[in-house]
Amino acid sequence: MGNEVLAHQVQSLYIDTVSVEVKGTDEDARFEPAVVNVSPGDILQFVVREGRHTVTAYHPDNRRPLRMPGSVESFDSGLLTSGDVWFLTISHTGVYDYYCLPHERMGHAGRIIAGAVEAKPDYPDEGIPPAVLRILK
To answer: Strand, helix or coil at 113?
Structure first.
């Protein structure tokens, strides 16, 4: 077995899967937990318990301000319904803010903190609903 294969196998042993439940149908729509701490390389599993939701990055590709590391690609789960599970791998250190498109105005948002983040980022608040800012601050 080559060193490269062995290194990959050892690295794989330290990857975690972190579960986030997606709940609610209207004003009670929420991610639980709203803030998760992971290590780069970990996988987030979003489990939709009820309703119709998305897991969408705050990113210009999604017509929102950038609220994630600038070098990272945007993400969007598309519309998910009760019983669906969607996976997201976080590969880079940083803070990632995301929202549910149908329920954003009601504060349905979350934050992923990946790795050792020294200071909270100074992301723009402009264009972000006040209910979301209350969750992310």
So the answer is: strand
